[in-house]
Amino acid sequence: MEDEVKQNAFRPVEVEKNIFWVGFADFEAGFSNNPYLVISDKDAMLIDPGPGNPVPSRLF
Questions:
Q1: pLDDT one-digit tens code per residue, 9-58
Q2: Is the confidence at residue 60, as pLDDT, over 90?
Q3: How far apart are CA 57 and CA 4, in angstroms?
């Protein structure tokens, strides 16, 4: 997917039918933002899963 993201840096990437990754990847900095756009016949929903480590490690 990295090659496709680099080629389409400013375009959505369809990862499954009607599901698009609309984020940003900075491979140099090791950072990515990973929201997804899900489209149905009548609706669309933007999902942003948030940071990769949402649970503080001190809880374990």
A1: 678 889 999 999 998 877 787 777 889 999 999 999 999 987 665 555 56
A2: no
A3: 33
Number of structural domains in the chain: 1
User: DSSP readout, the chain?
Assistant: -HHHHHHTTTS-EEEETTEEE--EEETTTTEEE--EEEE-SS-EEEE----S--S-GGG-
Pairing of strands 36-39, 31-33: unpaired
Question: Does residue 24 belong to any structural domain of this protein?
Answer: yes
Does residue 57 fall inside a structural domain? no
| Domain presence at residue 36 | yes
- The pTM for the full model equals 0.65
